[in-house]
Design a protein that fits this description.
Length: 475
């Protein structure tokens, strides 16, 4: 980069120098040409005065090596010329400078001389006897001037090239010095400093990228840690029912179970097998959501109908737990996957039944608003992904259950996290339901947050219970 800057500065400096030199030469040529004509006019006036006073004798001892002098009669006949035989010269009556002098007393022209075969500058003056004195000199050409000054010009050019080379080298070093001293690991240190004002937008962009890279690195590390914990937890969760099944099966195999308890042991084996099957299914679904394998189909889904289907599916479970299940609202439509939307509603309702009291209830409320805005929630609410303002479909699942302690609110969407571990296992939970809900909501560009009151957190007459609020962009 330093070489590129050096070459650019040097070429610019050299171009400016050569352009300046050409400009000076042009101005000098114009000035010298003007001075030549001025000197011709002076010489012509002196010659006119001499001829007026001395007549033809003026030309006897005349020395005009730098100029040519011609005396022309009123009718154009050449009376005298110091560079040619006057008697053999053509009549000069039609010469432009002669015609001007005869008319106005003074004439001036620049043209090719047929006598000398050269480009000449002419000045003519009319005398009192109406004869004409004409002075001429070879016109100064740009090439002549250049050849005359070629040696000093070459010296100046060489000096200019050398000086511009040195200046370009020093200037490029000075420009690059602040850049070479930059600590790119901490670009924000240079914000506002005079030496870095021009590249401050670049430094700000670098700082932003570094923050983004740091955030990405932290997210990668967090994801790796979550996967490690997930693997460990999954292994533990799978080993538990396997140990139970293995233990009961071994007892049955060794005929160590009374006949009246065989059915009970078989039921326990079936329960653990069902739990293990559900756990494996949840792990597969969650892995698909994590890896992006669960592609979101774009269908117009009636969330009200999905809620009714979930209610019908969970009715036996709710009846067994002595919990009433209700759906409120009207048809509300969402663009998304029917299977994932069913999974969201099912998991929320299933948890609401499992962690409820006998005689309790679960209510599903559906609303479709024209405008809404869901922002960051308070500390007692867990939030996942914000939606844009606009038409929203809102699903609220409210239960009258045991509630969630405030310190656990922020962790309920973690995998295998259970607020009440003993109750969760008794109810057959896998600890993955809310993680699946969170990922499915994110795939639909939705938002989920929770508000809960338990025996500890409920106050001021507030009843126990939990409300999950899910919002989707409306169809």
């Amino acid at each position: 980069m330093n070489k590129k800057i050096f070459r650019t500065i040097w070429l610019v400096a050299l171009s400016v120098f050569l352009a300046s030199l050409a400009f000076i030469m042009t101005v000098s040529y114009s000035y010298l040409s003007s001075e030549q004509l001025k000197q011709l006019r002076i010489e012509a006036r002196l010659a006119a005065q001499g001829v007026e006073r001395l007549g033809k004798d003026y030309f006897t001892n005349l020395d005009t090596k730098d100029y040519r002098i011609t005396w022309i009669s009123q009718d154009g006949e050449v009376l005298f010329d110091d560079d040619a035989n006057a008697s053999k010269m053509q009549n000069h009556r039609e010469r432009p400078e002669v015609q001007q002098a005869q008319t106005s007393g003074f004439g001036q022209a620049t043209r090719h001389s047929f006598t000398l075969d050269d480009q000449q500058s002419y000045v003519a003056l009319r005398l009192t006897d109406k004869s004409i004195i004409r002075m001429s000199a070879t016109q100064l050409s740009f090439l002549t001037l250049l050849l005359r000054w070629i040696q000093p010009i070459l010296i100046v050019v060489l000096i200019g090239v050398g000086v511009s080379f040195v200046l370009a080298r020093q200037l490029s070093k000075k420009i690059m010095q602040p850049l070479n001293e930059l600590d790119f690991s901490r670009p924000e240190r240079y914000f506002g400093k005079a030496d870095y004002q021009e590249i401050e937008p670049l430094l700000m962009h670098m700082a932003q990228q570094q923050r983004q890279l740091k955030a990405n690195q932290e997210q990668i590390e967090k994801t790796a840690l979550i996967r490690q914990e997930f693997t460990a937890n999954a292994s533990h969760e799978l080993k538990t029912p396997l140990h139970v099944i293995s233990g009961y099966a071994e007892l049955l195999k060794n005929r160590m179970v009374p006949d009246e308890n065989i059915t009970e042991f078989a039921d326990k084996i079936c329960t653990e097998a069902t739990r293990m099957s559900k756990l494996a299914e949840d792990i597969i679904n969650l892995s698909k959501l994590d890896s992006g394998g669960a592609e979101l189909s774009h269908e117009r889904c009636d969330l009200y109908q999905i809620c009714k289907n979930v209610r019908d599916s969970l009715e036996p479970t709710a009846t067994k737990a002595q919990v009433s299940l209700y759906v409120h609202g009207d048809h509300a439509f969402v663009d998304g996957s029917p299977a994932l939307l069913h999974s969201i509603v099912y998991n929320l309702c299933d948890n609401a039944i499992k962690y409820n009291h006998p005689g309790g209830s679960v209510h599903l409320y559906l609303e479709q608003d024209a405008q809404d805005a869901v922002g960051a929630t308070a500390s007692a609410q867990g939030t996942v992904n914000a939606t844009k303002s606009g038409a929203l479909t809102t699903l609220r699942v409210h239960d009258t259950g045991i509630g969630i302690p405030p310190q656990d609110i922020d962790r309920i969407f973690e995998r295998f996290y259970r607020v009440d571990k003993s109750r969760s296992k008794q109810a057959g939970g896998t600890g993955l339901g809310l993680s699946i809900v969170k990922h499915a909501v994110q795939l639909h560009n939705g938002n989920i947050h929770v508000q809960s009151y338990n025996g500890v957190g409920a106050g001021s007459g507030q009843a126990e219970g939990t409300t999950f609020t899910v919002t989707f962009p409306a169809q």
